[in-house]
Predict the structure.
Amino acid sequence: MDASSPSPTPLLVAEGISKHYDPQPVLRGLSLRLDPGERLALMGPSGSGKSTLLHCLGGIETVDEGRILFRGEDLAALDESARAALRRSAIGFVFQFFHLLPTLSARENIELPLEFAGVSSRERRERVEDLLAAVGMTHRAAGTPSELSGGECQRIALARALAIRPRLLLADEPTGNLDTASGERVLDLLAELCTSAGTALVMVTHQPETTRICDRVLHMRDGQWIGEPTPAEE
Amino acid sequence: MRARPLPHASASPAPPGPARRLGALWRKTSLRHARNQPWQTLALVAILGLGVGGFLSIQMANRAAVTGFEGFTDAVTGRSTVTVEKAVGAFSAGELGRIRDTVGLRPAEVVPLVEGEAATAGTDPGRPLRLLGVDLVGIQNAPVADSSADLLPPPGEEPGLWSILRDRRSAWVAPEVARREGLSPGETWTIRARGEEHALTVRGVLPPGEGGVSVPPNLVVLDLAAARSLLDRGGVDRVEILVDPELPDAEALRRILAEELAGVGGGAWQVLLPGQQQAAGAQMTAAFRLNLLILSLIALLVGLYLIALGMDAAVVKRRREIGILRSLGLTAGEIRKLWALDIAALALAGTAAGLVLGSLGSQLVVRAVARTVNTLYLETTAASAQLQAGDVAMALLLGLGGGLLAAWLPLRDAASTPPAQVLSAGRFRPGLGLLRRPGLGLVLVVFGLAVLWLPPVPLPAGSRFPVAGYAAAFAWLIGGTLLVAGIVRPVARALAGRRSLPPALRHGFQRLRAASSRHRLAVAGLFVATGMALSMGIMVGSFESTVVRWLNVRFQADVYLSAPDAGGQPGVPFATVEWLEAQPEVRAVLPSARFPVPLEGRTVLLAGARYPDLLEEEEFLWIEEPLPLSAQPADADSFAVVNETFRYRFGKGQGDRVTLTTPAGPRTLWIRAVKADYGNDRGLLETDLRALRSWFDIPFYTNAVIHTEPGAPIPLETWRARETGLQFLRQGELRATALRIFGETFTIAQAIQVLGLGVAFAGLALALLTIIREDAASLRTLRCLGLDERRIAKVLATEGAGLAAVAVLGGLVLSLALAALLIFVINRQSFGWTLLYRLPATEMALQAVAIVATGALVGWLCARSTRARDRPSSPDS
């Protein structure tokens, strides 16, 4: 796919990326473009490479071939520290199993990335309270993850991911471990928060109904796109 | 298309039995893990081996030292003997005649013996030898001389029996001597005795001991006449009465003979029945050996702690596999059995390693133990320790039993693992709840304080076991462990709340704030190891400073004269002292004689010194200052100055009286003063030398101190040249020697200190690795949140340092308490010594800082090792 589309200036561009877990190829020459605020769903069977693509886009993993440009900056040119700094300031993650730190309260889980990003104590407090209110968890702020339900944990995880006001949110099956009602609530919240913050979203999902909050849907199999690409990916 | 029906259950072959199924599963899981990760398997085997080996080595060395008390004649004469000894001096011909008359025509043989020390000469000079002179013709006729019969060639064989016995150079050597010196029959061999070299002809190698009697490794047997000549003895040292053990009434005859001989000898002869000599030595050292046993148990305990951590790490690592097996239908009980099988296999391998390590380690420890016994009690010949069948059984018991005991918590943890579905949902949080009882800890600490009032338990031969001290130490160790484990969370909570801290540090404390049971286990282990190591440091430091102070007072003379350990004269001749007194450079010579005597069923050291010159020339560390001689009661034969140990063992102090049995009849001594004396722990009773010589037939002095005229040169070389069989040492030389000997007595304590610190570090590393491995998902989350490796390392370094700091703070308190116990309770009750309490503050502070820094370093290294092992991924990977 061709990433050299005209304006607006893309947030993220992937050009011909490939990745192997020896000897198995996982991603095979994928290209992708994501505009600011755009919401993209990735679908495909297990083992198609969706999660690996997500990790590469977030700088958790590196690609073997091709390049990924985030705000025009090549991730491969950054060292591990710089990529970590990028995740601290501009990229948020949401996981299927929430991965809240079990030793911290809900409030502290949200505050943690802000602390590491060097946000002042006062501003941290304000942002955390706003986010708690936004996800409707103010009353459960002192609870630890073991005291929260799955849906509550995912709401806290969402607030944590958005605390740094990321430009890009990468969500790996965010409703995969929730019941239908909780999943719906989390999904609505995800769309609402991304819209209000102007955050772009790449969401891996197995559930077609969750793609309703996305602008585009891409299907993968064996590390490649399948089906007709939409004009944005041409 | 229709699916093919599954075969009916009844058509399938009979399922394997539970044991076979478990065995097969173990081969496919545990054994493959062991094969795939040989280094980790080896580490666990090594930990087990170290625990078992440490315990065994101390036990074997201990036994070797005690068996060294066996009479040197046992190997030659067998054990069916009644031994007659004199408290001091040798048996004269007249006394020997009285013994023969007493035995008369009864079926027993009188065998006079001479025993003394010599040393090797030639290429490897100075190795100590024990010379035993025995009437070789007489012993051939003796009824119980089975092993000695091998000493001589059969009659008629060359060289002839009489020609051998006529040859005063004939010698039979122990197998160890023959091996070490490369000797074989017929060779000429040179030894050194009483300062002179003597050439001997080796006639044979002593046969190995029979019936559990071992040949002392440095034994040399000579004919009685030859030995008396070599050792310059006028009489015989000891007489053995050999009774035929085949006699139906042998035991009764021995007892009758012993009673009759004791009556004939009065207080001058000591008559011992078979085994009494060894038993006396064993009893005398009972307290020391008990202390060693406890030290070896500590070694075992730390080994078990490491095993527990090692197994815990293995369980955590294989948690997913256990979860899958549970999902496939294995019950918790079957998982427990599977892991028990694992531990048993490891324990067997560890036991084998422990036997090898124990054998090697005992060779290192045996000399330290033997030196301590030599210094404090009596001479032993222990030079090497032998592995026996009992040791193998003990190793198996320790390895298997200890391994299963140590792995009990990890085993329980493994069995409680839920099926994989629950695991993958991240809802499983294992817990070891035993360490969550600070209240119980407080109760135990108070209990420890309460039992301090208990008196020591008396042991045979006058030793005492400080039961209160050990019970308090145990209660404080366990109680302190629970208390310290309980304060991790509050301390971390206080620090995590400090917003001024850098984020990585704060998050490190946040992790500790919710400390898991594994955190508590790590803190507990580190607390015990640190407390133990630091308390040993305080005790050794206190002992050293006390002894240095004592030596400063003790060694005030300019020159010390004594008989050397080996190859010299048996004592200092009277003539030598008289000659020295006549020298112009000499201001005063203060000779002293000392020898063990029985008192109230125990043994004490009786000494004679030249009073009142001694009090004028030298200073003492008085526990109770001397009373004036005018206060001596009229019915007392003389006065005595006793040491502190005597006061503790016999409960007699200033103003009390002691009655001694002497060849001159009973003599009453009035205790005039009590002095500090760290030279022995049996008790010293020192009286006036003139009085002592009038009661006992003393052939020579034990030693003498020489005070020279101020500023006068000391012609030491001239004196040495004149008195070749004696040893002259300057003050500095003797002090250095004394300090070295005292230092050696603490070799084991220092080894425990090093072991403690080693375990502290190893335990912390193992525990942190386990914690990090179990919490790998959190670390991956932190990476996703933008923490680079440096920051993650900081978080884990804070966690490690925090754990270490809490443990070290607790360990410092514990060490102060344990050291006070060791010095004021255990040491005083065991040995009767008052020590100064010296706190090596700088050394302790440095060690504490080093442990905390190591905690941080271990955390940092664990973070690095995690990064190396885990490829970057999301927590869901």
Remarks:
- The CA atoms of residues 101 and 819 of chain B lie 58 Å apart.
- DSSP finds 31 helices and 21 strands in chain B.
- Residues 1-11, 68-79, 142-158, 373-383 of chain B have pLDDT under 50 and may be disordered.
- Residues 1-77+279-284+316-413 of chain B form one domain.
